[in-house]
Amino acid sequence: MWCGLLDALFPAQCGGCSDVGSGYCDRCAAEAVSCVERRAELEVRALGEYAGSLRRAVLAVKNGRRDVARALGERLAASIRKPAILVPVPTTAAHRRARGIDGGVELARSAASRGRMALRESLVHVARDAQRGRSRAARLGARGWFVCRERFCGERVVLIDDVCTTGATLADCATSLRAAGATVREAVVVALVPNHGRS
Ligand SMILES: [Zn+2]
Fold first, then answer.
1. What is the pLDDT along the chain (199 residues), one digit of tens a residue?
2. CB burial class (10 A; 0-12, 13-18, 19+) of residue 71?
3. Contact of 122 with 177, CB cutoff 8 Å
4. Contact 170, 45 (CB under 8 A)
5. Best label site of 89, 138, 185, 199, fewest CB within 10 Å?
């Protein structure tokens, strides 16, 4: 409930370069080169590679900067072909509590509002206790962390997230959404981690 008050007291500041006025400024946006790649059988569009000012902005969102998430979400809207229903990749409840915001959800809300598109927060990230004590590789290799809590009737869904590395998380989300009846072929993210040298 303090968010509105804090936003009013502290004007937006660019997550990429700290300039005051916008959560992500035009100069930083101009530095990023938009890209599109196929990852995990999805077409993934990004504002740019995960580097420089865009990387700093993504980290600012991960640290709970709502103003940066809003500004980035507004820029994502232009990358999304309509008609589409936006579905954010949610974080875990524990991360949400620690950071104060859910970055993916904030990005998607902002993009939906700017682009006048439908938004459905359909996915739940299930961080089961069973994950505790497992090796990182085992946790990352696990599937089915995302549960879709509603049904679709073939609508075109575009997944929204902050960063795409291998695409495994997006693929998990797509699988859950497809099982619930959605058509999912694309994702739009803020930044794409380059896969140079990765097989
Ligand atoms: Zn900037």
1. 455 666 667 788 999 999 999 999 999 999 999 999 999 999 999 999 999 999 999 999 999 999 999 999 999 999 999 999 999 999 888 888 888 999 999 999 999 999 999 999 999 998 765 455 556 655 555 554 899 999 999 999 999 999 999 999 999 999 999 999 999 999 999 999 998 655 4
2. buried
3. yes
4. no
5. 199
Kindly give the distance from the C-alpha atom of residue 96 to the centroid of ligand 1, in angstroms, as a whole number: 25
| 191 CA to centre of ligand 1 in angstroms | 15
Half-sphere exposure of 120 (CA within 13 A, CB side): 17
For 3-192, CATH number? 3.40.50
Question: Cα separation of 125 and 9, whole Å?
Answer: 33
Cα 21 to ligand 1 centroid, rounded to whole Å: 9
Å from CA of 110 to ligand 1 middle = 18
What whole-number distance in Å separates Cα of residue 43 and Cα of residue 81? Answer: 12
Q: Ligand 1 mean position to 103 CA, how many Å?
A: 19
CA of residue 41 to ligand 1 center, whole Å: 32
Element holding 59 (H helix, E strand):
helix 52-62
Output the CA 60–ligand 1 centroid distance in Å.
12
